[in-house]
Prior knowledge:
CATH class of the largest domain: Alpha Beta
Number of helices: 9
CATH architecture of the largest domain: 3-Layer(bba) Sandwich
Largest sheet: 5 strands, parallel
Radius of gyration: 21 Å
Amino acid sequence: MAGMVIVGGGLAAEGVAKTxxxxxxxxxxxxxxxxxxxxxxxxxxxxxxxxxxxxxxxVILHDQAWYDEQRITVRTGIAxxxxxxxxxxxxxxxxxxxxxxxxxxxxxxxxRTLPIDGHDLDGVFTLRTLxxxxxxxxxxxAGDKNLVLIGSGWIGMEVAxxxxxxxxxxxxxxxxRIPLERALGAEIGREFERVHLEHGVVFRTEAGVEAIxxxxxxxxxxxVDGEVIPADLVLVGVGAAPNTALAETAGLExxxxxxxxxxxxxxxxxxxxxxxxxxxxxxxxxxxxxSEHWQNAKxxxxxxxQAMLGQAAQHDEIPYFYTDQYDLGM
Length: 330
């Protein structure tokens, strides 16, 4: 028996594996994680971890002993490069293959970048992985840097709070009128802006970012509407894109994520998706939704695992978000 294979290294991958065991599945479970770490959760990366209030051990979901006890094989530091739904087979970066009875794609999403000059200079960061967060924390921990944030969504505003807590100077560049307006509306966005202003954050709204300036291969500033704002560090926080390459090359239906039904089944037999990468049909709202949130990763993973075992499960939770910035939580 080939068993269950899960591709991914985050909360959704962990949730599928854990639920399979809780539902008394006794077969093989193998998790393929491209990053070198055991499975971890991402929400603390821009908050407690970045601010130095939590170590890497606190974001890792389980130690190796737990996986051994649960008889779950986790292969870290290796990418899945192709899947063949017809053959029920996954190909890995080292050329080896792994057969499966059921497969879950929990490949998450990647930080978007800006197609502007200077995006690849030293000192320019995105934040999506534990390694990203470690590098950014190391750059900020002395508390003497001038950080410019491009984007005022969830990541940008949480990083602003963490960077200020460490003592750094923070300037936020936002092309809209109000921080977090797209997510929360103008009134609540203004309240978050007020709290950040009280903590010394500088905002430049309706800002047209033209380029990231540098010297000797390292960032020195951001050019905005013809003016250069000095910067020791730059974080680009302009959203994330679902990691759909495996699904696309395998011929699965993809539209703003891997398309699934309400039970997290994809268009290919015995292939499921969960977490950030899944655009699942919501039976209550009557449309496909893709949510990049902690609770969605947990709930979609549980449904996917139950459906893999033939249970009548549907992902029907209403999506929500939370954030912590300074002493303000929502």
